Structures
1.
Amino acid sequence: MISSLRRYLSAVCLVLTGCGGASDIREYEVKQEFEKILTSDLLRDQFESIPFRWKVPADWKAAENDQFSAFAWSTGSGESAARITVSDLPASAGLEPQFLRWRGQLNLPEVDEAEALKSLETISLKSLSGKYIEIKGDSESIFGMIVPYKDKLWVFKYRSENSTAERQRKPFRDFCESLTAE
């Protein structure tokens, strides 16, 4: 019993006295991952998954990605807000089905593929080319460019209500035309 009491008192003394003199406790503050602002340059440098560079219009603000986008921006607010995204698809997805899908997103009537793609335009980029289209629905517009690159289709898409689309047509087109491959 006395030896148990001695061990107990020794343990209490060790706990109360510690392992040495005054401690040098240092505090560090580390930002949480979601507080980082990921720029296209940062992502490209860290992951090298996006093989392009581009010039983003000054009034576009970085936006939260959805399950499909690698990059997203918005411009405007409320009902006149626009969403711009960059995403990739396997090359096997095909160009034309994407443009036809966008017509469906605007609730446009089905037409044959040749009619739907009449306004498709080839844009020559530095060392690349892309297929560009503008689709206008009753209340919304979609502008888009698809660039085949290696084994993927890179999709650059703009969507907003029609009056905002009229104002953003040139900035989106300039954005698309600024695209260069690394």
2.
Amino acid sequence: MESRIKVAGHPVHPMLVVYPLGLLSSAVVFDALYILTGNSDLATFSFWALAAGLVGGLAAAIFGFVDWLAIPKGTRAKRIGTFHGSGNLVVVLLFALSFLMRADGAAYLPDVLPFLVAFLGAGIALVTAWLGGELVYRLRVAVDDDAGLDASNSLAREGVVDVDA
């Protein structure tokens, strides 16, 4: 089942998810380092990584939702996609809560509670990322119908670009 929204022949959703996953997980790491060292620069980085990660997560969600709508009802892929998307909504909400808990401080310094909320979000994100892998690698969601070891160049596909011109 091919993705509905592509850029240069590749689905947009998997291209976007790397940013929020990287930024939000980095925020947790930098929170831990701040708690261990007391270096407020680490907390400031974490705050802004959370902000950017939340924006990226919402952008990825839009494209993921469009792909989910195309999955046929009553399939295992639809059920896994529902868990994947719902779980990621919980992840974004937890990271947003962590962000808001520290947003009123002048130096964005988290105490233990915002860190634990973000850490929980990161743990759930590991599960939802695995579910995303299950969708793509096991259930072939968002994989081109002609995919294979000798598939054509994604830029040479009909409707993308005429690379022979």
3.
Amino acid sequence: MTETEAVRFYRAVGPYGFLSNLHRCRVELDGVEFSSAEHAYQYGKPKTPPVREWIRAAPLPRHAALAGHHLSTYDVVEGWSGPTDAPWKGAKVERMERVVEAKFRQNADLAAKLLATGRTQLIEESPDGFWGEGRWANGHNMLGHILMGVRDKLRAEEP
């Protein structure tokens, strides 16, 4: 794989499905154990403990995602989305950074696979224009950027 190639992923399928938050793997964050990074991420979104716990217990990562995506705005913690002109400053980005880093630090096999992507660009082929590349490939690809940042941290710590 060359530096000019891109690794494209979406959902937990294919050779790079492990990059998706929907990939099932144990993640612990703030003393709470989750069955996927998606569970850990969505757990941070609701204001109330019962809703957070309901999301944590969702049987599949996609169920946690659906629950989190369909919360009413009054059920979401303050500052989650950030300002309209700078959504990358919201609590959701800080949460995602912590979740993704925990996922790869706690799962050595996944960290090795992430490092094996070299210096290629990581692109989530999601229609979501914030976390992925968007419908017309003009999105922010924030998940890809976070993954590349975690990869850089792990590489810097290699002996």
